[in-house]
Amino acid sequence: MATTTKRAAIPDRTLRTDRWWLPQLGTAVGLLLFIGYSTWRAFEGAHYYAAPYVSPFYSPCLAASCVPMRGGADWALVGDWWRLSPALLVLVFPLGFRLTCYYYRKAYYRSFWASPPGCAVAEPHARYTGETRFPLVLQNLHRYFFYLAVPVAAVLSYDAALGFRDGAGHWGHAGLGTLVLLANVVLIWAYTLSCHSCRHVLGGRLRHFSKHPVRYRGWLLVGRLNARHMQLAWASLLSVGLADLYVYLVASGAFADPKFF
Amino acid sequence: MKGDRVDEYDVVVVGAGGAGLRAAIEARERGQRVAVICKSLFGKAHTVMAEGGIAASMGNVNSGDNWQVHFRDTMRGGKFLNHWRMAELHAKEAPERVWELESWGALFDRTADGRISQRNFGGHQYPRLAHVGDRTGLELIRTLQQRVVALQQEDFRRTGDYESGLKIFQEYTVTRILKEGERVAGIFGYVRESGQFFSIAAPAVVLATGGIGKSFKVTSNSWEYTGDGHALALLAGARLLNMEFVQFHPTGMVWPPSVKGILVTESVRGDGGVLRNSEGRRFMFDYVPEVFRGQYAETEAEADGWYTDPEANRRPPELLPRDEVARAINAEVKAGRGTAHGGVHLDVSTRLPAEQIVRRLPSMYHQFKELADVDITREPMEVGPTCHYVMGGIEVDPDTAACPLVPGLFAAGEVAGGMHGSNRLGGNSLSDLLVFGRRAGQYAAEYAAGLTARPVVDQAQETAAAAEALAPFAGTGEHPYALHQELQQTMNDLVGIIRRAGEMKQALDRLAVLRSRADTLAVAGHRQFNPGWHLALDLRNMLLVSECVARAALLRRESRGGHTREDWPAMDRDWRRTNLVCALDGPAVSVQRQAGEPVRADLLALFDRTELAKYFTPEELAGDDGAA
Amino acid sequence: MTERRELRIWRGEGGEGAFASYLVEAEDGEVVLDLVHRLQATQAPDLAVRWNCKAGKCGSCSAEVNGRPRLLCMTRLSALPPDQPVVLTPLRAFPSVRDLVTDVGFNYAKAREVPAFVPPPGLAPGEYRMQQEDVARSQEFRKCIECFLCQDTCHAVRDHEENLAAFAGPRFLMRVAELDLHPLDAAAETGLDRARSAQEVHGLGYCNITKCCTEVCPEHIRITDNALIPLKERAADRKYDPLVWLGAKIGLRSGKTTP
């Protein structure tokens, strides 16, 4: 039915009058702040343990150079040839998980790569192949990072449990740091389990929910969490940064952890 | 001047709604080459607006249901004016038509045992409407559209051309049916996008163009509903049956003004919604008519009990047939018990939990939220009657959908008459489309295949049709929008829900004036995608059909179903066996009486004698006794 | 209450055109399409616009309002800035026909490329049994009114016409998902792997899940979260899961969707 193949010649990149760039700007600022902070902390290699608290950036601590942590996840699985900060050994997993996460992909494609800069706002690139070729085709590996993110979250849960001791290792105590680690681990789990790959593995690949009632219930639950995936992504990013900062402040002596009991 | 292009097909279907697509699918499956002429884009037909469901006595929810019960409900709803044979075929074939949709990919809501769920609706004795939330029409049109695509994919595998067996002509408008002698020879029309003319030579033409609602001011109908098929049939020498019966749906939106008339589905009432006047009274209990007394609840407690225990309780009067509810609302508003915006309250917010309302009535929830800023889970809706459906239509043979006077012309769906009598039950429209769409496709295909010599398109007719279509560009009079608004106001005010002889005579005078003014309509601009020109062409159709409605309404001196006369308020048994047929005699519209065919004895035997006595004259029933 | 609103409408044909400004009366509670109709009836009788139902159910009146893809009949004036003109353009990703009307034939061509529902062999019409929870996922996608706003807004083709051939667009990837999730679709028995074809034939990889399709959907279908991402995950099952690949090699797992 085409009598024409030309689109309406309208020069404006967009005719949107709202502040469509604001969310992208906010995303970029937030992510950059976190990247800056976490890079500094990851390479610092110090002030990450203040008994009984360990920074989530450094747990599990896999290098021989790790500070001894009483009962903690300081497993020197990697030999003493590793000279860099032990955080780097473990951070690659959550980093990979978040880098390939469906929400974060949207966030950085939009705010860093302007692909697109906003809905119905022309993007500046001459070519676009999406996630069809290397390296972005590797985004399909998200589910493996999900599998790896689960044990990391388990270790952080263990760390949070260890927070119910005092500095000498006696159980039945708690301080502000305990709450900080606890809140962080709850958000980490919520983010991890609300992931689209988790939703798929749990029930998304099923064809007949009616034949798998338990997995269906799980899928529904994860689906409800999944609707908040973006909020959980930000909340857990903030909480993991704050938890590390808290441990840093206590470990560096800038702040004394208030004990409740 | 002849058409700019000529194609040849075996069957041409005019209209791409439910009936048209079902006809096209049938004709193509029977090996005919089929063209579908679609006034809008493919998949946008008015069928998408149907909300409640498809009536079919599958008995999935109440196993007591069967075709006989459905037949009875349909005849009662139509006040026994229905063509009984159509009602019979419809009730018998509807379940198969629904099931076949499933095999084409439709996904209806389910019962607990995995079958198609069915819901209650006005006038239906049992839960009978197969549905998908409140967007059943969309499911129907999309399924048929996807079935068309599936057939095109088959053709592609066979011939390398998707459109070799079934082609959709999008945004094409038919302005004339071409004939050779008495027989159909093809169609003539114009292409919206380019403004060029086109002709298609075809021995069989199926009209499936829907209704006439755009002749009325307050209507639930979309822009396409301008009575095109009705007018094309009249101009081709066919006749229209019982055009006085126009259904006003009781619940259209009344506010804000820009959405006045948009439909509020009957499912709201089927699922528990109740009607209240401004004094808070559930007034429908006051409006149960004599013929339905005994079948409906008399107290609120009994009515409320019906939703959970339909065996022990009678149904609420909110679920009376549409004509009764529409008249009741009209009367309440007239008596000063209406809402601020001239409607009544339809409340579901106090009847169902919010979560259930959103799940069962999703489009209603969104419609009110987004168009009226009303949250129907928290406050009542304001509703009032809106022009919804025309029961009258092209006179057809009940079995074959063929027009008796014009060989090669077929009609199905809303544009065809007879099936619904004086009032259509909700849900019977979608099943009508499927049952008679399929039949029209079948018999059109058989007709085309059975011809030994094909009719030839007459160039003189094409030239005349082209001249007629181009006339508005040379017109010196007014532009079409104002004329259209006057027509809508006239029909709404003078031939609307309550009718009086004086007003209808006045309407006919006005229509005569409008028709002469329409002869000199002028449109601006050029032929490509010109809405003004298009409206000018539609106006010819609307004016013709409106005159049929008004003349028939003036002639029928009784009140029945979708025809209410203030001066003749009672139903008259003598009028039951009288059909009014509208024909074109030169330029003049005429309406004549014609006796209806007596109901077959075995069908009559499905009813109780005392009930029949309300509708049939003693002589008719005596004759029946003699036969039995 | 009547006020006057300025409408700035792109008018033209075959791609060439310019904005024209009109002052139009507006009543309380009106939508943009009401203004367009009043404009047609009073000042611009040949202004081309598509519309049918005017109730948000048919998806005909798609255009761009103040730069955002929207249905004209569902855009209330009260939701737009009162002190600025209402700017209307045709859908910018499709060829221009006239004024606000575009050629949306691309979508109908893509629709034909998605293989239809395959009825299960051995089940006659009327014998289908499906549970509500099994049909609910596909039912969400069948709410689609085919307004093609998602197709218009997706930057993969909006900003890159060269991708038109390779990319089916959100609407038709969602159609693939709908069929792949249909509890009785028998495509697999005919050798058609819908999830794999989404990636290999319909260009699922072009989607970078930036969610503009979901943002503009007037039916509030969660296209990205419920159709595109699950489809990407299913494609990953087939193509990027070495465990599945290995399992298929040694005959342990079929790689097909779990029944």
TrEMBL record, chain A:
It comes from the Bacteria. Keywords: Membrane, Transmembrane, Transmembrane helix. The chain crosses the membrane at residues 20-40, 84-104, 144-164, 170-191, 232-256. This is Succinate dehydrogenase.
From TrEMBL, chain B:
The keyword Cytoplasm does not apply. GO terms for molecular function: steroid dehydrogenase activity, acting on the CH-CH group of donors. InterPro entries: FAD-dep_OxRdtase_2_FAD-bd, FAD/NAD-bd_sf, Fum_R/Succ_DH_flav-like_C_sf, Fum_Rdtase/Succ_DH_flav-like_C, SdhA/FrdA/AprA, Succ_DH/fumarate_Rdtase_cat_sf. Signal peptide: none annotated. The keyword Oxidoreductase applies. Its cofactor is FAD. Keywords: FAD, Flavoprotein, Oxidoreductase. Residues 10-430 form the FAD-dependent oxidoreductase 2 FAD-binding domain. Residues 484-583 form the Fumarate reductase/succinate dehydrogenase flavoprotein-like C-terminal domain. Pfam families: FAD_binding_2, Succ_DH_flav_C. The active site is at R322. This is Fumarate reductase/succinate dehydrogenase flavoprotein subunit. It comes from Streptomyces tateyamensis. The lineage of its organism: Bacteria, Bacillati, Actinomycetota, Actinomycetes, Kitasatosporales.
Automatic annotation (TrEMBL), chain C:
Belongs to the succinate dehydrogenase/fumarate reductase iron-sulfur protein family. This is Succinate dehydrogenase/fumarate reductase iron-sulfur subunit. Residues 5-92 form the 2Fe-2S ferredoxin-type domain. SUPFAM superfamilies: 2Fe-2S ferredoxin-like, alpha-helical ferredoxin. Pathway: Carbohydrate metabolism; tricarboxylic acid cycle. InterPro entries: 2Fe-2S_ferredoxin-like_sf, 2Fe-2S_ferredoxin-type, 2Fe2S_fd_BS, Beta-grasp_dom_sf, Helical_ferredxn, SDH/FRD_Iron-Sulfur, Succ_DH/fum_Rdtase_Fe-S, Succ_DH/fum_Rdtase_N. Its cofactor is [3Fe-4S] cluster; [2Fe-2S] cluster; [4Fe-4S] cluster. GO terms for biological process: respiratory electron transport chain; tricarboxylic acid cycle. Signal peptide: none annotated. It comes from the Bacteria. Gene3D superfamilies: 3.10.20.30, Alpha-helical ferredoxin (1.10.1060.10). PROSITE patterns: 2FE2S_FER_1, 2FE2S_FER_2. It comes from Streptomyces tateyamensis. One of its GO terms (molecular function) is metal ion binding. Keywords: 4Fe-4S, Iron, Iron-sulfur, Metal-binding, Oxidoreductase.
